[in-house]
């Protein structure tokens, strides 16, 4: 039984199921970006680092990677919708085809703001991919183009997602039990 700080974790998505779904997402991205000469894959740190590492290895197209480090002000389990860019991407995306990758879409506040932050730089194509979508929590009108799994309204850890910075290294996705 996995625990973090004495709280029990219950397995929601097994490592093998993530692996299978990431492969499928890779095929979907390949199909939609088939004519791309050089795809730019942008991950949001920190949460996206594991998903992005697995996803890019399933996209058999010429691509470059970059990361945008964003943090939301405040330490609660809830996104505050007050986003700070800790580190911008280094690559110029004007006229380029871009795939924005994150671990989870929850209220939508983070991805909606970052999508707009990149869109105004005029990429020729900008799509979004998330492993997890907690649809019922959405506060703004935003959906990703590629979604791994729709998940219930539970606080999740593992596969890049943290609870107070712990748990990112768990190979599956777990719900923190009450
Ligand atoms: O849809 P939202 O409600 O905005 O929530 C989603 C965001 O929250 C998490 O990031 P977090 O701020 O926990 O930082 P992290 O990436 O370092 O884990 C996650 O990685 C998403 O970026
Ligand atoms: N770790 C973690 N971060 C989140 N950010 C938004 N939703 C979640 C969640 O369920 N778990």
Automatic annotation (TrEMBL):
GO BP term, example: GMP salvage
Keyword terms: Cytoplasm, Glycosyltransferase, Magnesium, Metal-binding, Nucleotide-binding, Purine salvage, Transferase
MF terms (GO), sorted A to Z: guanine phosphoribosyltransferase activity; hypoxanthine phosphoribosyltransferase activity; magnesium ion binding; nucleotide binding
Pathway named in the protein's UniProt entry: Purine metabolism; IMP biosynthesis via salvage pathway; IMP from hypoxanthine: step 1/1
Record-annotated Phosphoribosyltransferase domain positions: 16-162
Matching InterPro entries: HGPRT, Hxn_phspho_trans, PRTase-like, PRTase_dom
Localization per record: Cytoplasm
Entry's EC annotation: 2.4.2.8
The reaction(s) this protein catalyses: IMP + diphosphate = hypoxanthine + 5-phospho-alpha-D-ribose 1-diphosphate; GMP + diphosphate = guanine + 5-phospho-alpha-D-ribose 1-diphosphate
Major subcellular site: cytoplasm
Classification via SUPFAM superfamilies: PRTase-like (SSF53271)
One Gene Ontology CC term in the entry: cytosol
Family under the similarity heading: Belongs to the purine/pyrimidine phosphoribosyltransferase family.
Name the record gives this protein: Hypoxanthine phosphoribosyltransferase
Species per Swiss-Prot/TrEMBL record: Hydrogenivirga caldilitoris
Lineage: Bacteria, Pseudomonadati, Aquificota, Aquificia, Aquificales
């Amino acid at each position: 039984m996995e625990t973090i700080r004495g709280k029990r974790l219950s397995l929601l998505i097994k490592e093998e199921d993530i692996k299978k779904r990431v492969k499928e997402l890779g095929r979907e991205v390949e199909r939609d970006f088939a004519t791309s000469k050089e795809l730019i894959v942008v991950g949001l740190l920190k949460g996206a680092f594991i998903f992005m590492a697995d996803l890019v290895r399933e996209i058999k197209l010429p691509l470059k990677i970059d990361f945008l480090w964003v943090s939301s002000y405040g330490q609660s389990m809830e996104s505050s919708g007050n986003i700070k860019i800790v580190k911008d991407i280094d690559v110029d995306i004007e006229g380029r085809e871009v795939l924005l990758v994150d671990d989870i879409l929850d209220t939508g506040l983070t991805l909606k703001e970052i999508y707009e932050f990149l869109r105004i730089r005029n990429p020729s194509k900008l799509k979004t991919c998330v492993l997890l979508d907690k649809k019922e929590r959405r506060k703004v009108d935003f959906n990703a183009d590629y979604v791994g799994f729709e998940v219930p309204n539970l606080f999740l850890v593992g596969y890049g997602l943290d609870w107070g910075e712990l748990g990112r290294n768990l190979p599956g996705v777990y719900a923190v039990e009450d």
